[in-house]
Amino acid sequence: MQSFVEAEARAAVRPQRRADVEAALGRIRDTGVPVLNIDLIYGIDGQTEESWRRSLDAALAWRPEELYLYPLYVRPLTGLGRTPPEDDREWDERRLRLYRHGRDHLLAHGYEQVSMRMFRRRDAAPLGPDDHACQTDGMIGLGCGARSYTSALHYSFDYAVDMREIRSIIDAYTETGDFSRARVGRWVDAGEARRRHLLQSLLQAEGMPVAGYEERFGSSPFADFPGELGRFEALGWLDGEAPAGCCGSPRGARALGRARSRAVLPGVRAAMAAYEPK
What we know:
It is built from eleven helices and eight strands. It is of the alpha/beta class. The longest helix has 21 residues, at about 90-110. The two termini are about 35 Å apart.
């Protein structure tokens, strides 16, 4: 597995001094790691296309091999959660507009779109066959707050916003002597595994090889999700032609659909509604 180092250049929702970010990026580049990834958030209050472009250009100055564009999500109990920036529909439209602006800016500066969020420099060294595949590979997160998942379990440590709750979570983590058990998690049943595979594949620019889905689950995605895929196709969000390198008729998301591919959500809304924010 190729080594990756992430340098998160976050927006004002996680205040960081520009000098500190630049110094961290410089130290990472000095190590000679093969892939520098910078994450940027769009949709913060007061952000315009012009200010968003300045953030993009500041990141592009480092010529990172990868850039990720993340929409701002508002967590309950945070400052933004207590005072939402604007009407939900207007905010969604503004985030979509900023996303398109960022996507077009990166495409015009030598990057190719790999997924909804991920953009890779066209002249970067190829990743090779051992690159991580989120649909089929597991992930082990290290440290308090890190999340992990296997084929049947998605787990992490607890999450909180209130500082007293945060300290109690950290204290519990540092006092843990046996890390063989997860106390905060969710079992992934067969239906959710199918939906998760579909979601993560539609996020990819190349689309989803139907043959791979059928081999893994023994069924067709069009039979498992007739309503969702039929609706997306009617809206023009799916491409009926198989892109190069994909088997069968993967119906990869078009540019419009890719921007909205997070609309295919895993079936966890009831669990989220039942969770008590801390």
